[in-house]
Every structure is written in structure tokens, then in C-alpha cells.
Amino acid sequence: EKAAMDPAVALVLCLSCLLLLSLWRQSSGRGKLPPGPTPLPIIGNILQLDIKDISECLSNLSKAYGPVFTVYLGMERAVVLHGYEAVKEALIDHGEEFSGRGSFPVFERVTRGHGIIFSNGNRWKEIRRFSLMTLRNFGMGKRSIEECVQEEARCLVEELRKTKGSPCDPTFILSCAPCNVICSIVFRDHFDYTDQDFINLMKKFDENHRIMSSPWIQVYNNMPTLIDYLPGSHNKLFKNFAYIENYVLEKVKEHQESLDINNPQDFIDCFLVKMEQEKQNPQSEFTTENLLATIIDVFGAGTETTSTTLRYGLLLLLKHPEVTAKVREEIDRVVGRHRSPCMQDKSRMPYTDAVVHEIQRYIDLVPTNLPHAVTCDTKFRNYLIPKGTTIITLLTSALHDDKEFPNPEMFDPGHFLDECGNFRKSDYFMPFSAGKRICVGEGLARMELFLFLTTILQNFTLKSLVDPEDIDTIPIVSGLARVPPSYKLCFIPV
């Protein structure tokens, strides 16, 4: 009898402690925090938020509580910033204070705070500076990054030719291309799209991306300690990451054997050179752990995002044939048929440039941004935000601002053109975030989107299987990133 009591008593005690802790955390510092809906113990405001479309719910809450408000995601307190002004003020004007990375338990389990996306402090600064330099063509051997992307664009076109104009779902092919660009930058290896290693790697990333977008992971992120002991898709996620990490580790070993310190050929070589230079420094951030985590970050951040944007972009071009016709006209006029498009063409192609921007603005890929955190107690608009508080910046509120972009729910390249048809820059365009944590791969991603889309349209006519009127472009809603509905199309050679 007594033995049966103990676990129950322990459980009640544990829950009572949790309850008290959560009440205490919610009340402490409540006075100076921004306003917000009243949280329940332990679960916070979870019931007020639709897990299927968090950004929509947060935008609605801002109508009641203003541009700066507090919500509780489980026991985690988060301050939400809505609207261009608030987001800019935090990420740009107060960049240093808002440059922390908010907690993301799923990833912390994987990267343990290493790498670039989920690191903080000095480690983050060093690894970020190194990655930016390296992604800007330093030490990439003979080929520039632009040449890597152009070569991949040619492979992509060859692959699309093999469909012989019959209906296909472009998802897989469009994922191969950005993934392969990262492979050529990181490993200097360019895989055939049928290579088994490459397909396995792609499968793991794709599976992880799906799991990451599921409601279960939102639950995990809010109550990680509880769920670590439960079965569920997070276990598959960790297994996949272990597979990827092993694969990368093998590659790093090969690189160590063939390294020529005076002539690094790719990202791994550059990192190994840096490790060599700093081997006397016990505090050095250039460690194998950081190398592995950074490579996984670069793949994770650079594959799915770009391929989803391309896939969504083609869907929008199918839906708006009049836009596609104008882009093709510009390609014919500026590039012609007989050479590959290059980045220099962009300045003479304002309409195409506007279309690429409008695709990114319209699809609003990561509406809530990755979570930030304040690096110290921060005074912001008369509120006091305690050090370490999670900050959610609603990028969607800048991208869909109706004064800056009239009719923001419409897909209209005119949002980025002036009355004379010249390209119009906008500060509200922040699909890559803004400030000190702006996406490290922004330059690469923009290059890929421009070169891939122009090269595809230079070589193919896109043919929809349904009347453009009937094409649905509303995302099948998801957690961290928005995903377009699945569709098929025909690539008809020009």
C-alpha cells in the first residue's frame, strides 16, 4: 500500500512545485513588462494560440495589446513585436541588446549551443564573422560562388529536360539544387541527383523539416523536459541528425587528410586552416564540434528555405501567366538564349528583380522569425525586458504592411516598382530578418533565387494542369515555415 503511494505523492509534489514556480515566474517582473493576455499556470497562453498558425494569432493579439506585448508559451515568457517600427527599433536601433538567440529546445538538444544559428555571445560572433567571410568567396579555390550557382542552374535545367514536358511535382528536383550548392561550397563536391549518398542526405533533411513543422514539435519546444522521456517524432529527428553528423564527420576526416594549408578549396578547408592557426589558443571557438554544428546549420538554413521559395515561386508564376510573360520578355531582351544569366544582368532586369522580391514578400516564409533574446536587462519603449527573455519579431507584419505594400494579400510585382518601372527598394522587405542576426546566407539565397528562376524561364515554358484561376496559393499552414500546397506542372522546352 505504502509503496503505491510514493510515486503519486511525488507526482503531486512535483506538479505543485511546477505550479508555484510558473506562477512566480509569471508574476515576477510583471509590472514593467509589456501588457498581454492573462496566462494560465504551466501552460501559459497556449490555449489562446492556434498552434497551426501562430503568426496569425499573434497578429490578432496585437490588435488588442498594441505593437509590443507579452505572451507565455508554456512557462516561457516571450515579448512579441508587431509592425515594422517596433521590429526595426529592436533589431536595428537596439541591435546589440536584441542579438541573443531565444531558446529552441529541439535544436539545443542537437547542436548543444554550437555552430551559428543557436549559439550566443563570443562563440556566435566569431563563427558568424568567419562564415560571412567564407560565403563571400574567400578561399573557395578557383571558382566563385556565383559560378557554383550557375553550374547548378545548368544541371537543374538538364534534370528538368528529362521530364520531357510531362506533368511532374517539382519538389524533389527543386530541393536538390540548393542542397547541391551548399555541398559544393562546403565539401567542394557536386553530387549527381541520382547519387545514393546525396539522396539519403536530402531525405533526412526533408524528413526533419517536416517533423519541425509539426504541432508536436511546438509542444516539445514548450515542455522539453517532460517529453524527452516520451516516444514521438522528436526521436526520429535526433536519429536523423546523428546520421547527418556522422556523414559530415567522415567528410571532415577526408578533408583533414588532403588539406593544403596555403590553398583551401572549400568551407571545411577554410575552417580547418583556422583551427590550425588557433591551436595554441585554449579558448578558441574553432573546434570540430563547432565545425560540425555550423555545417549542419548551413544545410538546414540553406536548403529547405530556398527550395520552398523556388517551389512557391513557380506556383505563383503559374497562377499569374501575365507576370511570367513579362519576365520572359525581359530575359529574352537582356540575356537572350545563348548564355547563362549572371548577377550582372540583374540591374538591367528591374521587373524580374521585382518579381523575385514579391515572391519572397508574398509567401512570407518564416512569419515569426527565429526567436531572439535580449542579452541584458533592456529598456524598450518604457518597458523593462529582463535579460534572457525570448523576443518574437513578426516579420510578417512588415512584409504585409498595407501602407508600404497596398493590397498586401495580392501578388503584385508592382509593390517593388516605381511609376517608371524602375526597381523600388523597401526597408520593409525583411524575409531574411534584419540587424545583427540577419541571415548569413542572404547574399547566396538571393543569388540562387535570381539565377535559378531566370535560367528556368530562359529554357522552359511553365504549363499548368489546371486553369490559373483555380490555382490555390494559400500555404498548407505550418509551424516554423510556410509550405505551399503540392501541385504538378509541365516544363515545356522553349
UniProtKB/TrEMBL annotation:
Top EC class for this record: oxidoreductase
Signal sequence coordinates: 1-29
Principal place of residence: endoplasmic reticulum
EC number: 1.14.14.1
Classification via InterPro entries: Cyt_P450, Cyt_P450_CS, Cyt_P450_CYP2_fam, Cyt_P450_E_grp-I, Cyt_P450_sf, Cytochrome_P450_fam2
Cell compartment(s), UniProt: Endoplasmic reticulum membrane; Microsome membrane
CDD domains: CYP2C-like (cd20665)
GO CC list: endoplasmic reticulum membrane
Name of the molecule in the record: unspecific monooxygenase
Protein species of origin: Otolemur garnettii
